[in-house]
Design brief:
Main location (chain C): membrane
Structural class of chain A: mainly alpha
Helix content of chain A: over 70%
Structural class of chain C: mainly alpha
Oligomer: heterotrimer
Subcellular location (chain C): Cell inner membrane
Distance between the termini of chain A: 45 Å
Number of domains of chain C: 1
Largest interface: A-C, 57 and 58 residues
Function (chain C): Part of the tripartite ATP-independent periplasmic (TRAP) transport system.
Largest sheet of chain A: none
Distance between the termini of chain C: 34 Å
Keywords (chain C): Cell inner membrane, Cell membrane, Membrane, Transmembrane, Transmembrane helix, Transport
Strand order of the largest sheet of chain C: 1-2
Number of strands of chain A: 0
Helix content of chain C: over 70%
Radius of gyration of chain C: 20 Å
Strand content of chain C: under 5%
Number of helices of chain A: 21
Number of helices of chain C: 5
Order of helices and strands of chain C: HHHEEHH
Bound molecules: sodium ion
Family (chain C): Belongs to the TRAP transporter small permease family.
Largest sheet of chain C: 2 strands, antiparallel
Shape of chain C: elongated
Strand content of chain A: under 5%
Chain lengths: ~425, ~325, ~170
């Protein structure tokens, strides 16, 4: 079978199944059954798929998702989240769309340092979306910034994915990590610009209710009582990671523990709030894990059947000018990113792209960063960006996939603008690592 | 023409994978029109820990993987882990033939060849390692990264505090001080960039790599005699040539590390002998225990040790 | 028959409660092992291994309950444009497909489980764990998922809302 037939069969079956409304996880499993039968030798291939799923799900790298979810749900159900956001709301006064900005700043800080895109989207989504909707924000004003900043986890250090990419591509790890700092901050800045613009053209998107003026003493009390204790849980989680007390995967457990302790102190912990938190965290975790279970094998089938390798070789087989070639590679990364999982994409493309990029005369560290940006975007591209599903799980009832797709698009646009900026001014990436 | 599909456990850019791909090229060249290996990819095509099952069940025909990834099925792989001789010697004395026979019986795969042998493991530390009055390594206070292969030695003999981590997490764990020491092969530290944090190498080295090519037995038996002969011949040649290539790569790596200021601490005399003996015997002990649990028993235990361990080699 | 039905109806949420306990266990096991490590003690290796296994049991034990709760995400962008009668038909057809996939996986999971016993396979991490203890989760989970999806094939309740993606 030619690579395009394999690609057509695999992508065709999953797209059709999803279009008729099959649950995403089941659509993956069904496409895998077909793919395993065709490419992995019938029944043995289907058993192999269960083995693969077993490997994918029992990986410690997935641990942050349920625990950050638990942390966010606990914040929400114990009333601690409400306390903190009411306080921030009052403190920021009348800035339109203020909680959206808070999300970008908080999300940038937290997701970059936690290093887990899915985990931090889970946390911020379960924590902020319900609060913001309660306060009258339109959905895209809360969902968008959270998914946007979720992707920053892999651009700004520390980033496990960047370390893995540097190792695979044999480029300087330190240089690639440093290269991400300025572009990452620029991206966060673009998000802020985007929010300002969204509020400007649609003032209704963020509530403009009056806030009663407060004295300095009142403000100070609010900060000390409602903001600092909650923030300190996140800060301690991050500090413990940086200080080497625990690994990023372990940090989430301490975050959840911290919120529990805080809830006891603030008398917000009840049997019902605990039960509801576990219930909420479990539901989203199960939904996401079953998708991971199915999509892990789907990625592998694309690789094993030769479909993705064929696509890469075909796309890079043309004689093109360096800049066009770069755009082609970026396009291939985006295309694979819609259907495959990040690590598989790196394993597949690095051995082909990096030698090519060097003959074209681009800096490999710079290209490493562009590649991370493509992977960052792929977290939120329809139809299968994993952050979209995590967000779907944590968003309140009545939020449709369409809402989520629409909220994600402008943020994908920001990332594309950044890629354009980096092509025009490579120094933005290369200045810090001194290359 | 016979065609075999193949996958490899590690990413394409890793030195061990390149060695396997060299083997594939040699087979495809010499076997033109007779036999061809069609490489489908690495862990992105089939997860690295699922590959042994895949070749056993015939999902793929050939896999290049460490024996440690299927230790539950063939615990005899510890004979290679504790070995101190290169593959060419084990091929000559019938060790690999015995190993192949065990693979066929217990796992239904043909053990085609033991590649990239002759490479051993060192302990690498961030801070200067401490020795006690008798010259033994003192590991108290060391935060040592471990895994299923090392731990019998690290915890039971050295009494170290071990933190189990997957290879991909070690860089950031070293960076943040979650661990400050790890075992690793003589080669590859630079590729993983762990040398940014590690400053000492402890000699002598222990253990051996256990990377090999296994082929689904039904597939193997279905090949033409000529195909089988070519595959086996090239594998035997590659057993020897891959060792040579890696020895020179090791010398290059050591020279590069030297230049960056990597210091070497060497255990001497009895301390070194005890250290090596413990690494070996803890591993053999584990192998014996698991062999005894299996219906096939530990009948091959002595034969394996005799063929994969040469007491004279340690004395040098 | 009625008793059997009630037992069945009760088993699924019971499994979900176990899955919830696994989630809590994740937190507890990590907190304990990190604390031990930072106090200079050797954390029990089973703490780490058990948390990885907890991920599997949590996913498989909770999956049938999630079907009942309609918690698996699906997309109704296109189907919501169909006339209502056709929508109901498509919804039942999708449920049939889901049952089919789950039956295939339950069957293959049962085969995997039996071959793990027969071959005495181990999962090798810090310990040698007999693999069947883990893979038994597959036939159990997929069988129950098939039964749960089957309820949407013939019952009054539909898998899909039909309301322009309202309860996707
Ligand atoms: Na980060
Ligand atoms: Na983004």
């Amino acid at each position: 079978m030619e690579w395009y037939d394999a690609l057509g069969l695999l992508l065709g079956s999953i797209l059709v199944l999803m279009a008729i409304g099959m649950p995403v996880a089941l659509a993956f499993l069904a496409a895998n059954v077909i793919g395993a039968w065709v490419f992995m030798g019938g029944w043995a291939g289907i058993t192999q798929m269960l083995n693969n799923g077993f490997g994918a799900v029992t990986s410690f790298a997935l641990v942050p998702i349920p625990l950050f979810l638990l942390m966010g749900e606990l914040f929400f159900h114990t009333g601690l989240g409400n306390r903190m956001f009411s306080a921030i709301d009052k403190l920021l006064g009348r800035v339109p769309g203020r909680l959206s900005y808070v999300t970008v700043i908080g999300g940038t800080g937290f997701s970059t340092l936690s290093g887990s895109s899915m985990g931090s989207t889970a946390l911020l989504g379960s924590l902020m979306v319900p609060e913001m909707i309660k306060r009258g924000y339109k959905k895209h004003m809360s969902i968008g910034p959270i998914m946007g900043t979720g992707g920053l986890a892999i651009i700004i250090p520390p980033s496990a994915l960047a370390v893995l990419l540097a190792t695979l591509a044999r480029i300087d790890v330190g240089a690639l990590l440093l290269a991400g700092v300025i572009p990452g901050l620029i991206l966060a800045g673009l998000y802020i610009l985007l929010i300002w613009f969204q509020v400007k053209i649609d003032p209704e998107a963020a509530p403009a209710y009056e806030v009663t003026p407060m004295s300095l003493a009142e403000k100070l009390t609010l900060v000390l009582r409602d903001v600092i204790p909650m923030l300190s849980v996140m800060v301690l989680t991050v500090a413990g990671m940086i200080g080497g007390v625990f690994t990023p995967s372990e940090a989430a457990a301490f975050g959840a523990l911290g919120v529990l302790v805080l809830a006891v102190i603030y008398r917000g912990l009840s049997w019902a709030s605990l039960k509801n938190s576990v219930h909420g965290a479990l539901k989203v975790t199960l939904m996401a894990y079953l998708i991971v279970f199915g999509s892990a094998t789907f990625s592998q089938l694309l690789a094993f059947s030769g479909a993705s390798r064929g696509l890469i070789n075909w796309a890079t087989g043309f004689e093109l000018a360096p800049l066009m070639m770069l755009l082609v590679m970026f396009g291939v990364l985006l295309m694979l990113g819609m259907f495959m999982e990040q690590i598989s994409i790196m394993l597949l493309t690095v051995p082909i792209f990096f030698p090519l990029i060097q003959t074209l005369g681009f800096d490999p560290v710079w290209f490493g960063l562009v590649m991370l940006l493509a992977l960052e975007i792929s977290f939120t591209t329809p139809p299968f960006g994993l952050l979209l599903f995590v967000m779907k799980g944590v968003a309140p009832p009545g939020t449709t996939m369409r809402d989520i797709y629409m909220a994600a698009f402008p943020y994908i646009g920001c990332s594309l603008v950044l890629v354009g900026i980096l092509i025009a001014f490579p120094e933005l990436a290369l200045w810090l690592p001194g290359r | 023409e016979d065609t075999l599909s193949a996958v490899h456990a590690f990413p394409e850019t890793l030195i061990y994978t390149k060695s396997f791909l060299e083997f594939v090229d040699k087979v495809n060249e010499r076997g033109e029109g007779v036999v061809r290996i069609d490489v489908r990819g690495g862990p992105e095509a089939i997860g690295m820990f699922q590959q042994p099952d895949a070749v056993r069940n015939g999902v793929v025909d050939m896999v290049y993987t460490p024996g440690s990834f299927y230790a539950g099925t063939v615990p005899e792989k510890d004979a290679l882990v504790a070995s101190n001789i290169p593959a060419a010697m084990a091929r000559e004395n019938g060790g690999i033939e015995l190993f192949d026979q065990i693979h066929q019986e217990k796992m239904g795969v043909k053990y085609l060849g033991w590649f990239d042998s002759g490479v051993c493991y060192n302990l690498w530390t961030r801070n200067e390692p401490q020795l006690d009055a008798d010259g033994n390594l003192d590991v108290s206070g060391l935060k040592l990264r471990g895994n299923a292969v090392y731990n019998a030695f690290f915890t039971e003999y050295l009494g170290a505090q071990v933190i189990d981590l997957p290879t991909t997490d070690v860089y950031s764990a070293l960076e943040r001080g979650v661990v400050d020491a790890t075992g690793w092969t003589q080669i590859g530290l630079i590729d993983l960039k762990w040398n940014e944090f590690l400053n000492y190498r402890i000699e002598p080295c222990f253990f051996s790599t256990d990377l090999g090519v296994i082929v689904n037995l039904d597939k193997w038996n279905s090949l033409s005699d000529e195909s089988r002969q070519i595959l086996q011949e090239v594998a035997i040649e590659h057993e020897a040539s891959s060792t040579e290539a890696l020895m020179s790569k090791r010398d290059d790596d050591f020279a590069a590390l030297d230049e960056q200021g990597m210091k070497v601490v060497t255990l001497e005399g009895q301390a070194a002998a005890d250290y090596l003996a413990a690494a070996r015997e803890k591993t053999w002990g584990r192998m014996r225990g698991l062999m005894e649990e299996h219906p096939a028993g530990a009948g091959n235990y002595d034969a394996l040790i005799e063929r994969f361990y040469d007491p004279a080699a340690d004395a040098q | 028959m009625e008793i059997l039905r009630r037992i069945y109806l009760g088993i699924v949420p019971l499994m979900a409660i176990v899955a919830g306990a696994m989630l809590i266990w994740l937190m507890v096991s990590i907190v304990v092992s990190v604390t031990m490590r930072n106090l200079g003690m050797q954390p029990y290796a089973w703490l780490f291994t058990s948390s990885e296994y907890a991920l599997l049991y949590m996913t498989m034990l909770g999956a049938p309950w999630l079907v009942r709760e309609k918690g698996h995400v699906h997309i109704e962008l296109l189907t919501s444009a169909l006339p209502p009668r056709l929508q109901r038909g498509v919804s039942r057809f999708v449920a049939v497909l889901c049952v089919l996939v789950c039956v295939i996986l339950a069957w293959s999971g049962a085969e995997l489980f039996l071959s793990n016993i027969e071959r005495q396979d181990y999962d090798v991490r810090a310990y040698f764990t007999p693999k069947w203890i883990l893979t038994i989760a597959f036939p159990v989970s997929f069988t129950l998922m098939a039964l749960e999806f089957a309820r949407f094939v013939h019952g009054d309740d539909l898998l899909h809302s039909g309301e322009a993606g309202l309860h996707e």
